[in-house]
Amino acid sequence: MTHREQGERAERAERVVVLALDGVYPFELGIPSRILGAADGRYEVLTCSVDGRPVRSNADFTIGVEHGPEILATADTVVIAPVDPSHVSTDLPDEVVAALALIRPDARIVSICTGAFVLAAAGLLDGHMATTHWQLADRFRRMYPHIALDPDVLFVDDGRILTSAGAASGVDVCLHLVRRDHGSELANTVARRCVVPPFRDGGQAQYIEQPVPEQGAAGTAATRAWALERLGDPLTLADLAGHARMSLRTFARRFNEEVGLSPGRWLIQQRLSRARHLLEASDLSVDQIAGQVGFATGASLRQHLHASIGVSPQAYRRTFQTAAR
């Protein structure tokens, strides 16, 4: 893409085309329009089928679409909506193959849940890391043993190709797109408008064993809210357990059951999330940001940020402050 084309693309709304196939899940089909459509006009979301005709959903109704496959050739980002597992096969119908062939080489491609099976069957995941719904991980590995699959995460951002897990992880990956394209301030605004969590790290566990608590059983939500107001303090497991009025062992076990992470890893994620926002929205130095979010030194923040997303604070700030302009 030339500099002129990049400039023109930056000045207009990003065109996102969602491909609906037979057996599509209606909820997930609507996620890109709902999330990206709340981003202050930054995205134009269109939906198509492989022939421009209505699509049978996996529910008891058919979905009409306004566009045929030709719209895929105009997309900056293509989203493959998931289909019922009964429609998954290594052999794609000819019309699906033809539709996918219309996607531009420079277009970004995103799958939700079983959409990863479609990308794999088309050869688009070769050489990429991927994820899909945890219940279908063994099936995916049997069908595509050559593709590196991580079934334990909410989504995988592998550059041009992004794959996400089941259902609500489609919300997470769409918010990630907004954050990647335009910064966390707009992503947080979109999350508030859609009444969804503003940030769930892609590496968070897909499946959290959370049994229904006994009546009157204490949880950790109040302690998490308390900790978020004190991220700059040197919080310890003992501090958290003391606030929750639990023993260390009970608190750690219950926290992991409810969140899917250890208290220590959760704290690091929250501190990194706050640090990323400050890198985008303020001119504070790395050392100042580290102090505000609870890292002992700027070096510690650099280490954790690089381990999480593979870039330095300075590189992150340059990227996202530019995207926010």
Automatic annotation (TrEMBL):
It comes from the Bacteria. It holds the Pfam family HTH_18. The keyword Transcription regulation applies. PANTHER family: ARAC-FAMILY TRANSCRIPTIONAL REGULATOR, HTH-TYPE TRANSCRIPTIONAL REGULATOR RV1931C. CDD domains: GATase1_AraC_1 (cd03137). InterPro entries: Class_I_gatase-like, DJ-1/PfpI, Homeodomain-like_sf, HTH_AraC, INH-QAR. This is Helix-turn-helix domain-containing protein. Keywords: Transcription, Transcription regulation. Residues 221-319 form the HTH araC/xylS-type domain. PROSITE patterns: HTH_ARAC_FAMILY_2 (PS01124). SUPFAM superfamilies: Class I glutamine amidotransferase-like, Homeodomain-like.
